[in-house]
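Hi team,

Filling in the usual template for the complex we talked about on Friday. All components are listed, including any nucleic acid strands or ligand strings, so the model treats them as one assembly.

SUBMITTER: L.P.
PURPOSE: interface mapping
COMPONENTS: two
RESIDUES: 1030
SEQUENCES:
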Amino acid sequence: MGKKQKVILPPDLPPEISDDEIEVSDEDLQFVKENRDYAGFVSRLDTQSITKHVTRVADVNEDALEAIYEKRLKKKSALQKEDEEKNKVHVDPVDALPVKTLDGKLYYRTVAKTSKGEDENEAGEDEKDGDVDKSLVKLTKAEKRAKVKKSRKEAKKLGKEVDQPEEAEQAPQAAVLAKVKEDLTAEEAFESKKCKLAELGIALLSNPEANITSMKEILQIAKDDNPSISKLGLLSLLAVFKDIIPGYRIRLPTEKEQEMKVSKEVKKMRFYESTLLSAYKAYLQRLLAAEKKPLFQQVVVRCICNLLDAVPHFNCRESLLEVVVRNLGSADDVVRKLCCSTVRSLFTNEGKHGGEATVEAVRLIAAHVKANNCQLHPDFIEVLMSLTFDEDLRKPKATPEVDKKVKYKKFYKRKIPEEPSQQQENKRKMSKKELMSKTREEVAADYKAVSFAPDVEEKRRMQSETLSAVFETYFRVLKQTMLSIAASSETFTGSNTSASDPHPLLAPCLNGLGKFSHLIDLDYIGDLMNYLKKIAGGGSSYYSSSQKHVEHLTVSERLRCCIVAFKVMRNNLDALNVDLQDFFVQLYNLILEYRPGRDQGEVLVEALKIMLCDDRQHDMQKAAAFVKRLATFSLSICSAEAMAALVTLKNLLMRNVKCRNLLENDAGGGSVSGSISIYHPYATDPNLSGALASVLWELNLLSKHYHPSISTMITSISGMNTANNQVYHAILSPQQAFTDLSLERETFQPKSDIRKLNSKRKRGSASSTLSGIESTSDTSIDENEVSKKLAKHFIILRDIKENERLRGELDRTTLSLQLYEKYKKQKKAGEPKTKRKRAKIVD
Amino acid sequence: MRPLDEAETTAVFEKLYKFTGNNLKNIVENPSHEGPDPNPGRYCFRLHKNKVYYVSESLVKRATNIARANLVSLGVCIGKFTHSSKFHLTIQALSLVSANARHKVWLKPTSEMSFLYGNHVLKGGLGRITDTIAPGDGVVVFSMSDVPLGFGVAAKSTQDCRKLDPNGIVVLHQADIGEYLRMEDEL
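RESULT (copied from the run log):
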């Protein structure tokens, strides 16, 4: 009871008194002795547990307390286990479910115990397991099996005699072993081959002339059955060839030449070259053969592209080019990208091959386009964009040469008649001059032969060939598009809408035409413009009245046509100022068809810039019509497009003073409005819309635009007036404005204070704006009112939308009902029974 | 005064079609707001003393009150039939044609006067020209500030104009507003 001394906590303990000190009275003793039964409990008192109960942990805090409790529990369970082990109580496996103790541990009662016991047994004895097994009567089957396995393993390890059943299982293991061995050998072979490849390659690279024969060995390796080995072989060959291929084209010696006596070095050189060439050819054959296999395709294409990129001047370029061009339209993205970049680099680095490969590639592309009827990947044509044509070569150099020739001719001509008269006098001089010129010519010829400077004539010829192939391709695409449009508009099947882009090549083709427009022959321009006009019309010009008309081309494509037409015109016709009326009509109508999500804003903006801003003169009616339409348009689209439209509008207004009548507040336009006295918003021809009779009321709405830059733009526009004829300067192009705002669009969030800012700005410029109403309302404006009005506005908008939706649903249901009615009528004739049934269903 | 007969109508419309193309229907369907009638009438063509007039229907009704011999003119005279029954547009038709013109040519300020004296339009005087002009098309001639000056027949297509030398004729003269002074008596 020594512990008790420390304890202070409840239950209150008797004061500390040593046993000795306790005085037990005689009477008590007597009583105990007399009634031993009563006192029996004392002896049976579990002092320990009492002390435990009472030992409430004087100087232990709460965490420790828990730990203590846990410890206690563990102890208890351990005790229990021991007990159980002692008793060897085997529980039936059925109720051998694990027990989760309070501390979260799982205890598998019997199983754990028995296995434990067995393990111990096993550790002790190895071969006498059987006996032990027998002794353990209550072993489960699984345990038995486990045991057998274990023993077998041990047996195997020890290499002891194997009995019958084991042998049966040995056979597959042997097979596995063999396989492993095989794998090992294969791996070794792989490694060794790799090493060999590396050795051969290094040898070749270090001294190609001496080791040229080892080329064949690598080729042999490249023909290996193992795909990875042969891939490696191909790639290493590529590296080797890239390095050792000479900077010239090898020409094998003719028989005559071979018969001639040559020095040792030349012989050696010839041998080297012929081996190299034959090896290269074999390699190419191997590549071409492997290219068909899908497994090899990427590697092979990479090899070919690299080769073509590195040594476009070398022999057998044609087959390489053929593969690359064919793969330009490959479905595999990687392959296509590789080929595209190769062809591009071929076009840009013409110095490597002197332009011949370019001609060939362009011709091949043209042939492919022709063969596939223009149904190819857009990349096919896209690569042509990177072609460069040396204009200096085309014009200025050509003319001086011709001039020189002419001059020479003139010179000679002049001289020849002079000669007879002056022959006598100047014979000496002449001969001297002739001598001089002769020697000069000789020197020039020699120089030409020696220097590898590309011949100008030759180069020009090649360029013109390239150009003709390129334009042939472009015109073919255009023609095909037009034909398909014509065909589809003839049949006029309303169902086959062009969901998928049926003219994949059109967009890159138009881009290319725009880029090379300055190189087109004047004779072609008429036809080209006709084509473009038809395509821009989308075949719709004759069906403009029918609403069911199917759009064959997207708005962007048609806009692009307009742009190309303008570019072509501008680049070619400096002398003649042609007014492309039809394209203006197209643009005028396309503006309405533009949808911000569907179509490319950049194209629209480019069209606006090229057609409306850059063109110097417009007639008044047209300009006014465009001003009006752009204002209407900018009401209904996102801020970026609206901004571009407004910049264009401002530009138009600046240059057409009379159009500023639109800014005045009286409708009718006065004397300038022309013969058409009313504005027709739906007119298709800008000249007939009568826009001058209208008023730009859109500006007033736009001045309340949520985007601050638009509203400032509007105030500056409405600040212009007809009275003063001052010159306004264009600040920025519509394209710039568009990109600015479309970049900003992601970050821009209309803030509440913008409205205030706007109203302030409005107040500031109220004097210059036209409407008096606005200025009066502005003074009393406050935020609440604005928000109320906005809320009202949006509620109305939502109602309208809801209304539209409901109406659409109604239409749909009525339509389906009608259809159903029709169907019923049809059925009625045939089967009266089913009709009745269906009538019931309808009810 | 009488409406045109079949042959005359085709002659007039063919001539107008050369200048206006599909816009011809705007001329025919143009509603007129003349007269006190609440619903707008149309314009129609009337022949009077070999001249063709473009008149509103309400005016035609009122003109019936006047004896044929006494009637000098009504509406807008747009042309006349020659003795060989061919139709010629006169300069008065300019307002009608220029509003609906399909092919236009703009003259440089320097060559305006030359045209107004009755000369053909040369390439050198060309300020601007619409695309898609074919030889034989009717062309309306404007000044650079969009004032209609007259009309004529194209001698060359737009494509051919490019290669033309500056003295080549682009538009053959038919009528110009100078005629109002020069031929005051005839009109």
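MY TAKE: The interface with chain B takes residues 522, 525-526, 529, 533, 573, 575-582, 617, 619-621, 674-676, 685, 688 of chain A (CB under 8 Å). The first strand of chain A starts at residue 99 and ends at 100.

Thanks, L.
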